[in-house]
Amino acid sequence: MTQSISLSGHVCQARPTSHPLRSFCARCGIYMPKTSPNVKYHRSRKYSTIEPFKIDADVLFDQLAANQHWSRMYNRRACHLALRDEMLSFIDEAACKLTYSESTHHLAVTLLDSLMSLYDVESRMLKLFGFMSLYLAAKLHEKAEALPSFTGIVKMFNDVYALEEVRECESMFVKALHYRLDAKTPYTFIDYFFTRGVLSDDDVSHFTGDKQTKIALFEALVVRIGKAALHNYYFFRYKPLTIAAAALACARKIFGVPQLWNDDLKCLTRTSWRHIHVCASELLKIALQDDPHIMEKYKRLNRARTEPEACGSRTLSNSQTTCTEIGSEREIGSLQSMPIEHADEKCVASGTQRDGFEEEIEA
Questions:
Q1: Which residue, among 172, 174, 120, 181, has the nearest Cα to 332 in the 3D structure?
Q2: With a cut of 70, which residues of the chain have pLDDT below it?
Q3: d(CA 130, CA 93)
Q4: What is the DSSP string of 209-277?
């Protein structure tokens, strides 16, 4: 079966291929971008005022995906993981007090995890390094007037740290991460997906009442799930794109959208179900731990029709990670390098089925 494709005066018959973004034109002997003229994607009012990326969307996505993984070095033996929750609470409180954005908050936690996965920080300096991660993230995502001065930071800590220590902390932080601070976080991709639209006509047709309200609730749920992943170091092993796509699937499950994953989402996220179902299962597990009745609440709220997600019955092995040692230990001021454990992305193709997620058969 063929489909007619028209691009700037060129009309041909394109044969469907396995490639998620291309169709092959047998007549012209070229690959052509697939189009979805009959599918409308819905966005909340917050994102409907933003002009879609259109022709540059794929280029922008490629740039985001290419810069997402340099800092994510999962290390379950990191010395300060026991204090991580306390430090994140401190960052949350500071970000709220300074009215920083979600993107700043997510980047701050990512920078802190990147540093703590690689180095052992002196216990006395932990809070300062925690705040410095927020400060450096704010430099990239907030206006200059929203940034506290170093003198203000000293007063914020009631003179526990000297002015020179604050300056030295910033210098050590950026040197430890090789000055590469603009890490891509799950929220980066979630925000991108929302701008493009993640709910199709068919998805929204299952909602009753004010559809804009339901779409906004769905987007808020995705952000909530992404933040749950941010606060759990286990998910640092996954790429940000994987977490963002899994958060979408998890939200669709909770919200009662009939299809967890489809070709439209595969094209949008460049991610197949087999690459995210383990991460999505873990995210759903976290969501159910936080609120055991979350699925009933949302399904009752949107009154969506639910259908069974049909799928196979294969049981998959537990995900594994490998441990790699740094050649030699080195010190940078208050930092001492530690052995790291790199995330093995092959593990996302394996895992155990849990919490009501069933593996879907790809088209």
A1: 172
A2: 1-40, 48-58, 69-72, 79, 302-363
A3: 12
A4: S-HHHHHHHHHHHHHHHHHHHHT-GGGGGS-HHHHHHHHHHHHHHHHT-S-S--HHHHHHHT--HHHHH
Distance CA 83, CA 333 (A): 21
Give the pLDDT of residue 169: 94
The 3-state secondary structure of 138-206 reads HHHHCCHHHCCCHHHHHHHCCCCCCHHHHHHHHHHHHHHCCCCCCCCCHHHHHHHHHHHCCEEHHHHCC
* Distance from chain centroid for Cα 340: 22
The alpha carbon of residue 78 and the mean position of all alpha carbons in its chain are separated, in whole angstroms, by 22
Q: Is 30 helix (H, G, I), strand (E, B) or coil?
A: strand
Identify whether the C-beta of residue 128 lies closer than 8 Å to the C-beta of residue 91.
no
Contacts of 189 (CB under 8 A, 6+ apart): 64, 68, 240, 241, 244, 245, 269
Report the alpha-carbon distance of residue 202 to residue 218 in Å, rounded. Answer: 15
CB 189 within 8 A of CB 240: yes
pLDDT at 346: 44
| Cβ atoms of residues 328 and 167 within 8 Å | no
Please state, in angstroms and rounded to a whole number, the distance separating the CA atoms of residues 345 and 274: 12
Question: How far are the Cα atoms of 7, 8, 22, 23 from residue 31, in angstroms, in the given order?
Answer: 12, 15, 6, 5
Q: Which of 341, 346, 321 is nearest to 74 (CA)?
A: 341
pLDDT at 250: 94
User: Taking the complete model, does pTM exceed 0.90, yes or no?
Assistant: no
Q: How far apart are CA 33 and CA 24, in angstroms?
A: 9
Q: What is the pLDDT of residue 31?
A: 53
pLDDT of residue 40: 65
pLDDT in tens, 253-262: 998 888 889 8
Q: CA 21 to CA 248: how far, in whole Å?
A: 20
Maximum C-alpha span of the chain: 74
Closest CA to 114 of 237, 285, 272, 284: 237
The answer to whether 78 and 117 have CB atoms below 8 angstroms apart is yes
